[in-house]
Every structure is written in C-alpha cells, then in structure tokens.
Specification:
The chain contains eight helices and 14 strands. It is α/β, with parallel strands linked by helices and 283 residues long. It has three domains: 93 residues, Ribonuclease Z/Hydroxyacylglutathione hydrolase-like (Metallo-beta-lactamase, Chain A, 4-Layer Sandwich), CATH 3.60.15.10; 139 residues, 4-Layer Sandwich (Metallo-beta-lactamase, Chain A); 39 residues, no CATH class. Helix 7 runs parallel beside helix 8.
C-alpha cells in the first residue's frame, strides 16, 4: 500500500489484505488497486475487501488495474455480489503506459514471472525549484503576494525608482526538482533491461524469494535472489532497497543480507508485514 497525499493505492491484494489493513488501522478508503499478475496470492483478497467496502457504505467508484482478464474478474465480482453499493472500473494494463493521478503517475512495466506480469513505478511530478528570496528583494519585489505569484510561475511587474520592471519566475526560482519515485517489481526473475523511467528511485521494492545459494531454483520458478535484487538496485540507481517475498523456508535473512551487500552499498530493508516506510524528498 502506498499513501501519497490524500490518495491510497494498493499494489496486489492477497488473501489476508483486509486483516492487515485492520491491524494497522489504515481504513478501507482505497482509491485504486493494481494487480501485478493472476496468481492467487496476489489477488484473492480483492473479493472480501470490496465486500467490506460495500458493508461500510462506500459510494465512490474504485479502479482496478490488472493484466488481461481484468474485465472478466470484475464481471465475476459483479455477478457474485450484485448488491455492491459502488461502481467498479476495470482497466487493462499496458507496458509503459502512463496512468495519471493528481500530481503523480503510475507506470506499469513488463516483468518475467512465467505469465503476463507487471511491476509498477510511481513517480511524482517535477517540483518547482527553490525560491530565492534575497534575489527577489534585490530586483525590487517586496515581500508579500508577489512572492507567491512568482512561485506559481507568474510574471510580475513592479515599479522601482519610478520605472516599471518585469520580473519573470526564472530570475528568482532555482532549477526544477524531481519528485519522489517508488518501484515495486512484484514477482519476477531479474529483468534483462529496465525502462528508462526506473532510474533514480527513492525506494526499490524487489522480489528476493531466495538467497543466492538457490539461484537455479529461483530461475526455475521465475523469482529472484537477494543478490539479483541488489544488482537491480545498482543498475537503476536506487537510493534504498527493500527485499520482499522472502520464502517461508528461511528462518533467518542473514544469507539474504550478505548476498545483497556483496553488490549494493545503499540501505537495505527487510520490511515485515505492516511495516511503514516514510519516503522524504531528497532535497
């Protein structure tokens, strides 16, 4: 789950999703659900979650994004629960499309899991540069409403020493700054090539089902090892790496940590269920 401003997006929805949401008290005001692929542990929770939303009186539409057959899944949901109190909107994912939201977008990309599958890049819009207050004053702009107009990209006119002067935003604003970026791979083998939009993420959430000793097994079942996830973090220039989907066969993540650190020098996270990660702006 990602919360950005007032929006809540759910990426995959396993069988126990709503119980976990209740544990951490997120509520059920989800705006959109993205399904990476049609394996049961990634979508079976949708049925119960939508029914709970109906019981709670939801009226607003919910958007469901998924691979081919998403329309069939939504049709089945409607047939099973014909008394849902809100519309369900189904959208089929396409590699590289830009799904626009207010101030950010979600970009699906094809992954390698033995079936049609997707990862997702959430990237915020570019932010304005920093406002140079001292420079504005030196140009004759008095502190006050004109500061705000310049920061909103408007050109202003001031009178200094009896002469009118035009001041443009580029005279007092620094270079645009990137927004935050989060990547979620879902289940996948290592990608042969990453999309350009994946570079420079603040957080890469990557499949690390196995440690490197089980690399052959990982390849057989279309998953990744911790070391391979770390290589992906290096290839994409990720600031932080979260290793997820660890196989239940492991009672310790010591080998995963060792494997990942062999390739990647950044911060490595092993989030448990319901772990909350704050993602600050880089500047």
């Amino acid at each position: 789950m990602i919360r950005r401003g007032s929006d809540t997006l759910l990426f995959d929805c396993g069988e126990g999703a709503q119980q976990q949401m209740m544990r951490v008290r997120t509520g059920f005001t989800v705006d959109a659900i993205f399904i990476s692929h049609w394996h049961a542990d990634h979508y079976l929770g949708i049925f119960g979650l939508l029914e709970t939303m109906g019981f709670n009186g939801r009226r607003d539409p919910i958007r469901l994004y998924g691979p081919r057959r998403i329309h069939e899944i939504v049709s089945i949901i409607r047939q099973l629960n014909q008394r849902l109190s809100f519309p369900i909107e189904a959208y089929e994912l396409s590699d590289g499309e830009e799904i626009l939201f207010d101030g950010y977008q979600v970009i699906p990309f094809a992954t390698r899991h033995g079936c049609e599958s997707f990862g997702f890049i959430l990237v915020e819009d570019v932010r304005p540069g920093r406002f140079d207050r001292e420079e504005a004053i030196s140009l004759g702009i008095p502190p006050g409403p004109l500061f705000g107009r310049l920061q909103r990209g408007e050109t202003v006119t001031v009178t200094t020493c009896g002469e009118e002067k035009i001041v443009t935003p580029d005279q007092v604003m620094g270079s645009p700054r990137p927004g935050r970026k989060v990547i979620y791979t879902g289940d996948t083998r290592p990608l042969r090539e990453w999309p350009d939009t994946a570079s420079g993420s603040d957080l890469l959430i990557h499949d690390a089902t196995f440690d490197d000793q089980e690399r052959e097994r990982a390849d057989e079942v279309f998953h990744s090892t911790a070391g391979q996830a770390a290589i992906a973090a290096v290839e994409t220039g990720a600031a932080r790496l979260a290793l997820v989907h660890i196989s239940s066969r492991y009672t310790s993540t010591a080998n995963h940590i060792q494997d990942a650190k062999r390739h990647y020098q950044g911060e490595i996270l092993f989030p448990n269920d319901c772990t909350m990660i704050e993602i600050p702006f880089r500047d």
